């Protein structure tokens, strides 16, 4: 064990002896863990971390779990932890870091992402939601769509147009929006699985203090891209163990049902097993790159292959199960706290995986990013890039 790792183990033990998980209130425990720098150890001192390598995080989490410590239910705050937090850390003022990071990490404040609109998805820079300055506040009007978890969220990251006279990428500003504002109206959108994981969100005269602007006025595109790069890594780039995730589910079904095997299915399984392993090892490499800086466009490639492999494997799982795969346990509309991908049946997985090639950037858009920013191929023709946003036909 490295000296850094042993020192961390010592700190965790010291923390646990001062805060008995069995008798400490869970919220107090989590706040104290944040203050001790044992929340996300790669974050700076004073911001929930100790400025250490990300690679030490799993061991810290394991030690806390083994001691029966409360956890921050990271599965219900993926957007907060994976996307909002790194963006706030990079662009936030000291006051914003003080105000938002701790309740975000402890799970006291769940976050959602108010980016996509009916007319701005792949072309996010086309956002039409307006934010107009009024004294110390901004007044926001518009409609967002596909907002995952908005029904549980206390806060949102929001991209809005603050200047329509300049080309689309330059007139955007990034805000931290309080979802309890009376002008925020969240309505469920039911998806193919029967659930309503996401929502449409109507913003009517929502007031956002200027102190909740993240980055400079007009810097929204740059800040949003930092979020999107983190999103792709969060969706596709998690370090996994061999046969973890969808490949593990399908391999288990294969091993348990010899009667379902055919040579064709065997060939498909072997091919996808190899693809999954290559993706997993690429994820390890990406993790090492991440440990040394911010995620770059390489996260797009990981997310791209994750979506393809997950969809193919969930299709193979259905084929393997034959008629049983056609059963669907529950199609009632619920508004879930989180996506329970592995807790549900094969039919759910098959349908939910369809969204993987849309959420966090469609596979077509990710191919463009890989082509242009990783491989250096000539860029797509973009006709509206230099015209003021207000003059672009829509
Ligand atoms: C499960 C799920 C959860 C989501 N959660 C959120 C969320 O929490 N917050 C949020 O803001 N958004 C969320 N989204 C929205 C998601 O980011 C958008 O759906 C996505 O960016 C695509 O935008 P769009 O739906 O407007 O499709 P469009 O942009 O209209 O695209 C339609 C089709 O055209 C293709 N296309 C578009 N432009 C090009 C091009 N230049 N080259 C080649 N092909 C192109 C696309 O690939 C796609 O196939 C979620 C989506 C899903 C499915």
From TrEMBL:
Keyword terms: FAD, Flavoprotein, Oxidoreductase
Keyword Transcription: no
Gene source species: Gordonia hydrophobica
Domain Acyl-CoA oxidase/dehydrogenase middle: 112-206
Domain Acyl-CoA dehydrogenase/oxidase C-terminal: 218-375
Family statement: Belongs to the acyl-CoA dehydrogenase family.
Cofactor: FAD
SUPFAM superfamilies: Acyl-CoA dehydrogenase C-terminal domain-like (SSF47203), Acyl-CoA dehydrogenase NM domain-like (SSF56645)
Protein name stated in the entry: Acyl-CoA dehydrogenase family protein
Domain Acyl-CoA dehydrogenase/oxidase N-terminal: 11-108
Domain of life: Bacteria
Pfam family, one: Acyl-CoA_dh_N
Signal peptide: none
């Amino acid at each position: 064990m490295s000296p850094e790792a042993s020192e961390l183990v010592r700190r965790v033990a010291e923390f646990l002896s001062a805060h008995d998980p069995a008798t400490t209130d869970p919220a107090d425990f989590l706040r104290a863990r944040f203050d001790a720098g044992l929340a996300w150890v790669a974050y700076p001192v004073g911001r929930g971390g100790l400025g250490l390598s990300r690679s030490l995080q799993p061991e810290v989490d394991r030690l806390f779990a083994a001691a029966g410590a409360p956890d921050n239910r990271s599965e219900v705050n993926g957007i907060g932890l994976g996307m909002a937090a790194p963006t706030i850390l990079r662009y936030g003022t000291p006051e914003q870091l003080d105000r938002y990071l701790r309740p975000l990490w402890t799970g006291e404040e769940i976050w959602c992402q108010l980016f996509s609109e009916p007319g701005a998805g792949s072309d996010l820079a086309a956002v039409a939601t307006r934010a107009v300055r009024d004294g110390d506040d901004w007044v926001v009007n518009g409609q967002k769509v596909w907002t995952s978890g908005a029904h549980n969220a206390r806060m949102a990251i929001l991209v809005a147009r603050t200047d329509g006279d300049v080309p689309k990428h330059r007139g955007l500003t990034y805000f931290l929006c309080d979802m309890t504002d009376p002008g925020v109206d969240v309505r469920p959108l039911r998806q193919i699985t029967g659930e309503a994981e996401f929502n449409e969100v109507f913003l009517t005269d929502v007031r956002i203090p200027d102190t909740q602007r993240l980055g400079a006025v007009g810097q929204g595109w740059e800040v949003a891209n930092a979020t999107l790069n983190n999103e792709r890594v969060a969706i596709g780039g998690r370090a996994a163990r061999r046969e973890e995730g969808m490949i593990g589910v399908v391999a288990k079904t294969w091993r348990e049902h010899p009667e379902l095997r055919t040579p064709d299915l065997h060939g498909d399984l072997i091919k996808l097993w190899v693809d999954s392993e290559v993706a997993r090892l690429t994820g390890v490499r990406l993790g090492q790159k991440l440990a040394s800086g911010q995620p770059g466009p390489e996260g797009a490639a990981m997310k791209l292959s994750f979506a393809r492999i997950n969809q193919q494997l969930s299709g193979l799982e259905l084929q393997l199960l034959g008629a049983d795969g056609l059963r669907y346990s529950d199609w009632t509309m619920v508004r879930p706290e989180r996506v329970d991908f592995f807790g549900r049946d094969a039919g759910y997985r098959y349908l939910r995986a369809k969204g993987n090639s849309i959420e966090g950037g469609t596979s077509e858009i990710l191919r463009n990013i890989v082509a242009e920013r990783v491989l250096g191929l000539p860029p797509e023709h973009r006709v509206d890039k230099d015209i003021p946003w207000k003059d672009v036909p829509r």
